Predict the structure.
Amino acid sequence: MSDPFDGTERSLGQLVASATAEMSALVHDEIALAKAEIRQDVKRGAIGSVAGIAAGVVLLFSLPMLSFALAYAINTWTGGHNGNGGWNLIWCFLLSFAANVLIAGLLGFLAYAKFKKVKPPEKSIASAKQTAAIMQNAKPHPRPAQRPALDKASAVARSSV
């Protein structure tokens, strides 16, 4: 069998070495593709995690101060500052809590949306399946018929030629 590029005959060892090197390069390229896809999904997952943690932090640490400030602001806004009473403070505090839950819900939805975008490395899986399909269809060359056993002297003489 001859290589179309240089026109010289290649030995079986050279062909096997070439095939092995090309297969190795293919495997390395598929691994690099998988790493790139996983790296991208890890970034998305990290952004989703940060948004989820931020939602929890906002809900836990801002509720006491925000709730009191917002409740008293609502009471003042509804007329509690001029002695007319305004809304009852209970309703003001409940409205303040609802606003905080709404903010935490929006941050939680952002986290969910980011986590939903995390997908398996589809390109790597498709490439690996394609390579496996090609390899399953590849058939080895038939082996030449077995020669009759030679005595050691003729084998040594033949190998030294």
